[in-house]
Amino acid sequence: MTDTDLHTDGRFGLDRRITLPGPLRLDGGALLSPLDIAYETYGTLDADGGNAILICHALTGDQHVASNHPRTGKPGWWARMVGPGKPIDPARHFIVCANVLGSCMGSSGPASINPAIGQPWGMAFPVITIRDMVRAQAMLLDHLGVGALLAVVGGSMGGMQALSWPATFPERVKACVVIASTARHTAQNIAFHEVGRQAVMADPKWRNGDYYQDQDPPAAGLAVARMAAHITYLSEAGLTEKFGRKLQARETKTFGFDADFQIESYLRHQGIAFVDRFDANSYLYITRAMDYFDLAEEHGGHLANAFKASKARFCLVSFDTDWLYPTSESRAIVHALNAAGAPVSFVELSSPFGHDAFLLESPELNRVVDGFLRAGL
Amino acid sequence: MSLRPDLAIIADHVAHGARVLDVGCGDGALMAALRDTRGVDARGLEIDGGNVAAAVSRGLSVIQGDADVDLADYPDASFDYAILSQTLQTARRPDVVLDHLLRIGRQAFVSFPNFAHWRVRASLLWGGRMPVTPLLPERWYDTPNIHHLTIDDFRSFVADRGIVVEGAWFLSRGVETSSAAANFRAEHAVFLLKH
User: Fold this and answer.
1) What is the distance, to the nearest Å, from the Cα of residue A191 to the centroid of all Cα atoms in its chain?
2) Has A355 been annotated as catalytic?
3) Which Pfam families match (chain B) (predicted)?
4) Which of A265, A331, A358, B72 is the most buried (most CB within 10 A)?
């Protein structure tokens, strides 16, 4: 591909959207068609197509991995990892990041229009899985002319997709980077998500998911869901260091229920900021997909079987203060990969920031990912 | 880049294209040499996260883990060689680690500092203090070497267990020395073992 092609080929660039005919056969049995996918690409696809890297985003992430978010104006959510001079570099790589199926940033989800009735899907949208998200990404790569991926990279729920890639399309993945993630949701993971979903559903404005036409979404419920989830992204030590028992802009306790403590004010802010950018029904669908995720279950109960057909190299990274997807979960994946004979690297990095550490500045994480990716060339 | 002398001996005796597990691989110096000069498919296990990051950043497949705990996860006979260099004396259960090594690898290289070297003996005999030598530079309270052993200890250990010694090399000041009186003269030993 020449530069001219790149500039005239509307498939490539920032803030793209494509409607694919499908149908996409979902794990739940339904057929989805057509299929909208919002995505971005960075860099130029080599003539042999060998430099493509797919980046998979987390639960509330989006396709704007390294470009400013059109709504909030904030820098891309992983500009620390993706960009000029970074481990994933548009000067060397052709980078694709797509909004996941079920989300609300332009890809098909409960807030998008159900073509059969010309109205938003709401809860009529089929329940989806992590593997469905991956299959949708594969359809996008077909559209972009990408065959095998040099690497698929993701953190948290993005790591679940990254793990599912070699299990679902073994011939299409050469390397797989899984950061702060897991091969299955535990009872505790499901429990926290269920609290969030019940908070949304208990909000009278939710109305069984049919709230779109009045532009009056269940913001209070979704904010509470986000507050509960946000706690799981941080470590106790991090919370203590940042907030402790400090009071919020006051000298003494009020003996009331205002946000007396800084941590309360912080969480309320996190909740309110979230509802401006995220759809409550999408939150239900994506958390469900994560809860259903159990890669071993999809392969006869043995995680190693998931990787039997794959020739990919794997790199797993966990963080010592991440209690959402702790190191033991990464080790279980490493164990399975060893049993499958796959080349695997694993390192537990030290950080005070809990699960969120994968999104924050981490020279060690960058060093590991950079070295791992370069080794494949 | 020159390898540590015990690693150089191991590197010289690994077959081309073999599958190798380096237990306690440090920053991956031996693995990189084996990969680059002998086309070896090398995997590593290393306890220190900084070392793992360094090894991964040279493109090696290394898992952060503890030989005392994580060797149990590796399938039988999954490697041609399992290598344990300068790590045996740091294990909580060297005997168990050695069993795993010979289970996982068809052959095993083991290298360790010899506590019966004359300089160590002299230091203890005349100084009456735990020896601090170039090869054993830590003091008694901060050393990772919790199971000091001698070449003769190791020989009788493998003989008792019916382990076959397929090769043995001895080093003094980084230079290979004869096996005669090795227990006295060698600072360092490398054994190639097989069950």
Assistant:
1) 19
2) yes
3) MetW
4) A358
Say which CATH number the domain at A151 has.
3.40.50.1820
- The yes-or-no answer on residue A351 being catalytic is no
Instruction: Show the tokens assigned to B87.
Output: 């790590």
Domain enclosing residue A222, as ranges: 189-287
- In the DSSP assignment, the letter for residue B40 is -
Nearest CB partner across the interface for A334, out of B56, B58, B63: B63
Helix (H, G, I), strand (E, B) or coil at B153: helix
Write out pLDDT tens, residues A280-324.
999 999 999 999 999 999 999 999 999 999 999 999 999 999 999
The ipTM (two decimal places) reads: 0.87
Shared-domain flag, residues A49 and A141: yes
Half-sphere exposure of A344 (CA within 13 A, CB side): 26
Topology annotation, domain B5-114+147-194: Rossmann fold (3.40.50)
Tokens 């694993």 correspond to what residue?
Answer: A346
Please indicate whether residue A156 is annotated as part of the active site.
yes
Contacts of B28 in chain A (CB under 8 A): none
Q: Is A203 annotated as a binding residue?
A: no
Question: How many angstroms separate the CA atoms of B132 and B138, rounded?
Answer: 6
Q: Note whether A344 contacts B: Cβ–Cβ < 8 A.
A: yes
Helix A280-292 vs helix A130-144: angle between axes, to the nearest 10 degrees? 100
A253 — contact with chain B (CB < 8 Å)? Answer: no
